[in-house]
Design brief:
This protein is of the alpha+beta class and 222 residues long. It has one domain (3-217). It contains six helices and ten strands; from the N terminus they run ααβββββαβββββααα. It has helices at 3-41, 46-53, 121-129, 185-191, 198-203, 212-217, and strands at residues 59-67, 79-86, 89-99, 104-105, 111-118, 132-133, 140-145, 161-167, 174-175, 180-183. The strands form two sheets. The chain has an eight-stranded mixed β-sheet. A two-stranded antiparallel sheet has the order 4-9. Strand 2 (79-86) and strand 3 form a beta hairpin. Helix 1 (3-41) crosses helix 4. The longest helix has 39 residues, at 3-41. The radius of gyration is 19 Å and the shape is globular.
Length: 222
């Protein structure tokens, strides 16, 4: 390529690099969600409980980091990853915004990794179509795993969501009522394709290759 051709090509190359950065950002969240799910799946007390509940769920939201600092969620304004069970396996991911609402971490808690089990199709539809407030628009049962706490039992399976968390502070416990979840439309488009919506992502019935390792962690261990 001569110098003139290189100069003419630079704007296109720059645009291509700019376009790739958001997708890298989303993949980073998927990877962090995988690490969080792996950590919880192989937690001694929680692992068997997840093996019992996972066959019954319609979807799973993974929130890699729930911080107390400044009462905000996640590292960059709050983000979660949703996978939904389809006819032949997991579908997604759908990216979600996590808003603070009126939720909070109990005293002493600095960080929590959270799994939200979506127990019915109606709740899946709400999560992908609109903004949802936990404890208001949908019901939630809480169970934490961490310092001094045990996994939530399955007697709460009648709820729309069942939450499990592992905390890294002095006292375990996460109060999620009032937390607001909504689709992250720019991130869904950046990761999948222009014009992609949470609904259209699920209607493909496919799992993005970058989420394959996360999906494997959400299958019950035999």
């Amino acid at each position: 390529m001569d110098r003139r051709s290189l100069i003419l090509a630079l704007p296109a190359l720059a645009a291509g690099c700019a376009g790739s950065r958001p997708a890298n950002e989303q993949q980073d969240l998927v990877d962090r969600a995988r690490f969080a799910a792996e950590s919880l799946r192989f937690e001694q007390n929680l692992g068997p409980e997840l093996d019992r509940i996972l066959p019954r769920v319609r979807g799973v939201i993974v929130i890699p980091s729930l911080f107390r600092a400044g009462l905000f969620v996640g590292g960059q304004g709050g983000s979660g990853v949703l996978l939904v069970r389809g006819g032949s396996g997991w579908v997604g991911p759908v990216f979600l915004n996590i808003g603070a609402g009126s939720f909070g971490l109990q005293a002493g808690v600095q960080q929590a990794e959270v799994l939200l089990m979506v127990m019915n199709d109606g709740t899946v539809n709400r999560l992908v179509d609109t903004t949802v407030r936990l404890g208001g628009d949908v019901s939630i049962a809480l169970g934490t795993v961490g310092a001094g706490m045990s996994a939530g039992a399955t007697q709460n399976l009648g709820r729309d969501l069942v939450a499990y968390a592992r905390t890294s502070g002095f006292f375990a416990g996460v109060a999620l009522e009032g937390m607001v979840i909504s689709p992250n439309h720019p991130w869904n488009e950046a990761y999948h394709q222009a014009g992609a919506t949470p609904r259209s992502i699920l209607e493909t019935g496919t799992l993005a290759p970058g989420a394959a390792q996360l999906a494997r962690l959400l299958d019950p261990r035999v």
